[in-house]
Amino acid sequence: MVYVGIPKGQADQEEEVLKTIQDGDSDELTIKRFTESREKPGALWHIYAAKDTEKIREFLKKVAEEQGQENPVDHDPIHDQSWYLDRALRKRLHQEYGVQGWAIVQFLGDVVFIPAGAPHQVHNLYSCIKVAEDFVSPEHVKHCFWLTQEFRYLSHTHTNHEDKLQVKNVIYHAVKDAVGILRANESSLSRP
């Protein structure tokens, strides 16, 4: 978080932000950080475990059906980002599916890492600028490749339809570099 713009002369907005942080299931230390320091909170994140993705998807489809919304085959309630899980929906998700996420308030200067495939949502508390960088760690290549395959089933007009991470290229270049290093050191590796 590189910038948080707090409007001057709107004291009631600070109370509203505090209520949002509290309703967002933030822990007491985070609430204390906001109320007792001069730090600027920019965003409230809810991050869920990647293993819970299918349960969340099923839950969102169920809620959409209850509200009379369509669930087209080539759309995905998570990738479409058409839902924000407010306190009531988060509570229901936990009660019906046993899924609970983590609430993180991102203050000015904070970094938030989101594991590969972890469903998440963000609520901006003030005007803010966040710098995002996608990366593929060796531990998550398999999951990133799976996500790429999942994106292929979205509609052709969907913003996530293409492989933005270029996972196949990452794998190719990682293997190519590893083989190159092994070949360059082949003579030293064969000595007893």
Automatic annotation (TrEMBL):
The JmjC domain and the C6-type zinc-finger are required for the demethylation activity. Histone demethylase that specifically demethylates 'Lys-9' of histone H3, thereby playing a central role in histone code. Its EC number is 1.14.11.65. Belongs to the JHDM2 histone demethylase family. Pfam families: JmjC. The keyword ATP-binding does not apply. It is found in: Cytoplasm; Nucleus. Residues 1-152 form the JmjC domain. Keywords: Cytoplasm, Iron, Metal-binding, Methyltransferase, Nucleus, Transferase. PROSITE patterns: JMJC. Its main location: cytoplasm. It catalyses: N(6),N(6)-dimethyl-L-lysyl(9)-[histone H3] + 2 2-oxoglutarate + 2 O2 = L-lysyl(9)-[histone H3] + 2 formaldehyde + 2 succinate + 2 CO2. The keyword Metal-binding applies. Binds 1 Fe(2+) ion per subunit. Gene3D superfamilies: Cupin (2.60.120.650). It is an enzyme of class 1 (oxidoreductase). One of its GO terms (biological process) is methylation. It comes from Peucedramus taeniatus. InterPro entries: JmjC_dom, LSDs-like. This is Lysine-specific demethylase. One of its GO terms (molecular function) is metal ion binding. The gene is Kdm3a. Its cofactor is Fe(2+). One of its GO terms (cellular component) is chromatin. Transmembrane segments: none annotated.
